[in-house]
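re the bet — no i am not wrong, look at it urself. input seq straight from the record:
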Amino acid sequence: MSGYLPLRIPEEDLKYLEEKAKREKIPKAVLARKLLHEKILEEKFNEAVQKYLKGEISLGKAAENANLSIREFIARLASLGIVIQYSKESLEADLEAAKRWARKQKRK
């Protein structure tokens, strides 16, 4: 599913998109979508980390919110030097999140 989003961007950003798209030999709209998607994933990850660190969500829910497997999420946390805290309740919540994630992956 996709949607349409008309937007205006600063001239210098448009120039950058045009130059990079030309170098990569792809349409600038494709490049813009790619860059926007990457930034959204980054924001989702950062929000998930903040909620996890505040104890608002479990590790599994944070991974799910970030569109990552638990293994990928833990690896990203480790690369940032963040130590995970794990309780029995978190394990149970993470198992449920992993099951939801696996079901979602099967549907793709």
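see?? The two ends are 12 Å apart (CA to CA). told u. also The chain has one domain: 11-107. so pay up
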